[in-house]
Specification:
The complex is a heterodimer. By secondary structure, chain A is an alpha+beta fold. Chain A has a domain at 25-131. Chain A contains 4 helices and 4 strands. A 3-stranded antiparallel β-sheet of chain A has the order 1-2-3. In chain A, strand 1 (44-60) and strand 2 (67-84) form a beta hairpin. The longest helix of chain A is centred in the C-terminal third of the chain and has 31 residues, at 116-146. Chain A is elongated and about 85 Å long. Chain A starts with 13 loop residues before the first helix and ends in an 11-residue tail after the last strand. Chain B is α+β, with helices and mostly antiparallel strands. Chain B folds into 3 domains: 10-82, no CATH class; 96-121 and 155-175 and 185-332, no CATH class; 342-375. Chain B is built from 12 helices and 7 strands. Chain B has helices spanning 9-24, 34-40, 42-52, 57-66, 71-82, 165-170, 198-206, 210-222, 290-302, 319-325, 328-336, 343-373, and strands at residues 54-55, 87-93, 100-105, 116-117, 230-243, 252-271, 274-286. In chain B, strands 3-5-6-7 form a 4-stranded antiparallel β-sheet. The longest helix of chain B has 31 residues, at 343-373. Chain B starts with 8 loop residues before the first helix and ends with a helix. Classes of the chains: A alpha+beta, B alpha+beta. Chains A and B meet through helix 1, strand 1, strand 2, strand 3 and helix 4 of A and strand 1, helix 4, strand 2, strand 3 and strand 4 of B.
Chain lengths: 161, 375
């Protein structure tokens, strides 16, 4: 299925990838809470209702060699269309698992982030905290891992030490 | 040949009701929640995701519950579920070098840049049953909390861990893996054809039965096609999945998955004017699946026998043997179909054996008459 691309689509940039990553990796509850703080969220319609499906993952022999199909991953996608002052904007989301609410919230947030009047506030109140929380969780995991850092010694045999 | 049977609907419905009752077990014991399976039987979940070939912890947990803990049955449920889902496309190849490592060990070098981290391993445990776990309310000690330990070893950041095998590559002692950019074949879309290229073999091994791969890997170590491997590097941790939806045209991070990767360094090739060099095997699994990743790497290497000019002597070197028998859904289906009613087949064979016996008896009688008549 091909989607009609609304005309006022923001050009893809690193910034959009950054927030889409934050919404995909963030907790569903955090996204919904973030959205709830936006009572002035404009109405939207579905370009594509939340839909579960799969993405085939690929590996590479030795991580640099021949690609192979590794197995699939369950994902949910969603796309929304939102009217703006000077046209309309579409929001997209792909999130792991069968999570229709997460996908919908992420798509709506993606649409909001493409509108300057919302972007700054949302970035400060939601995107940045989501990424910071993730960074913190990663650091904690790394610290736990680091506590298992091991030094193996090779035992010298005989008299020569 | 199997001839279909009809009937038994009521018995089947009652058997399924009984199955549901047995699944629940003693009603005075609280029902297990899928979230508990997901969190506390996480290695069972990993195995079901891996062999079911679908990464989703909740789906695998549900399958395990429904299958009463029969993991091969749970794999079957996951495989059946994945056939009901559309495929949105293929993700960009995973980059395991940029993994957020939670375990990383090398059996070839003791000092590797990035260090070695044991992570949550069963290795070095004493395999003594812990009666304390039979109760509940066990709060585990947090790693690094041991008295006197703090401050002794400053917590070093876990940074980027370069591939251990890259050190051998740089010295020219191990051939680098090369990518000609070919799109990988897909076993779930095209039937297996032999000889299969490495992409197909790796896909098949990645969804193959852990028990089968373990036995095959073991057989190569015991002499049925020697691989003589070293575990160059084993790493486990999280990698982010990037996917480029066609409506967007740029890659987006969809989520992250846990994988285990094993790279082996195997006995060398060379001679005839070619300098000696090690060879390599590769294993990659969903979740924490070290036994399977190691087995996969050994079997991958062993299936490369032909391309590396080795004699194919052991079962693990034989593509047809390995690739046609390592899928537990197919194997289980074919073995277990034997218990379905085969009345018509059996009647035919029964008739055949009876007629053979009649012929045998007639022949024996004729022989004995002619023996008596001949002297």
């Amino acid at each position: 299925m091909r989607l009609q691309q609304p005309t006022t689509h923001e050009p893809a940039g690193k910034n959009r990838q950054r927030w889409m990553r934050a919404f995909a990796l963030g907790e569903e509850a955090a996204l919904e809470k973030g959205l709830a703080a936006f009572p002035d969220c404009p109405p939207y319609t579905f370009l594509r209702k939340p839909e579960a499906g799969m993405v085939m993952l690929e590996g590479r022999a030795g991580n640099s060699g021949r690609r192979f199909n590794f197995g699939e991953m369950l994902v949910t996608r969603c796309a929304v269309r939102m009217a703006t002052a000077d046209g309309e904007v579409s929001g997209h989301a792909y999130v792991a698992g069968n999570r229709p609410r997460h996908a919908e919230a992420a798509a709506v947030l993606d649409a909001l982030m493409q509108q300057p009047e919302y972007a700054e506030r949302l970035d400060k109140d939601l995107v940045a905290p989501l990424l910071a929380a993730r960074e913190l969780a990663c650091r904690e995991t790394a610290a736990e891992t680091s506590a298992t850092r091991v030094d193996f010694f090779t035992m010298a045999r005989g008299e020569d030490t | 040949m199997y001839v279909a049977v009809k009937g038994g609907e009521k018995a089947i419905a009652n058997a399924h009701a009984l199955l549901a009752e047995k699944r629940r077990g003693d009603l005075s014991v609280p029902e297990v929640e899928t979230a508990q399976i997901r969190e506390q039987l996480s290695l069972a979940v990993d195995r079901v995701m891996s062999e079911g070939s679908l990464y989703d912890r909740d789906t695998a947990a549900l399958a395990i519950k429904q299958a009463r803990g029969d993991l091969v049955e749970a794999v079957f449920l996951v495989r059946a579920y994945r056939t009901t889902l559309p495929r949105f496309g293929s993700a960009d190849p995973l980059d395991t070098e940029n993994m957020r490592v939670r375990r990383r060990v090398s059996a070839t070098y003791k000092d590797v840049p990035g260090g070695q981290m044991l992570g949550p391993t069963f290795d070095y445990t004493h395999r003594l049953l812990d009666p304390a776990l039979a109760g509940s309310g066990n709060a585990p000690r947090r790693p690094g909390e041991e008295a006197g330990e703090a401050g002794e070893t400053p917590v070093e950041a876990v940074g980027l861990c370069p591939k251990v095998l890259s050190f051998l590559e740089k010295e020219g002692l191990l051939p680098e893996e090369s990518d000609k950019g070919e799109a990988p074949g897909d076993l779930t879309r095209q039937p297996l054809q032999l000889p299969a290229d490495r992409d197909i073999r790796l896909q098949s091994l990645a969804r193959g039965d852990e028990g089968m791969l373990l036995a095959l890997a073991y057989s190569t170590q015991r002499g049925f096609g020697s691989t003589h491997p070293f575990a160059g590097e084993i790493r486990m941790g999280e990698v982010e999945v990037a996917f480029t939806p066609e409506e967007l045209g740029f890659p987006v991070i969809v989520g992250e998955i846990t994988v285990t990767e094993c790279e082996t360094v195997n006995k060398f090739t060379g001679g005839g004017g070619v300098p000696a060099a090690f060879t390599r095997g590769y294993g990659l699994t969903f979740g924490e699946g070290e036994r399977k990743a190691m087995s996969m790497a050994l079997v991958d290497r062993s299936l490369r026998s032909e391309e590396l000019g080795e004699a194919v002597k052991g079962p693990a070197q034989d593509q047809e043997f390995v690739l046609y028998h390592s899928d537990n859904v197919e194997a289980s289906g074919f073995v277990q179909h034997l218990k379905l009613p085969h009345y018509v087949d059996f009647q035919a064979e029964l008739e055949l054996v009876r007629s053979l016996r009649r012929a045998h008896a007639a022949n024996a009688a004729r022989d004995s008459i002619s023996r008596r008549a001949s002297p």
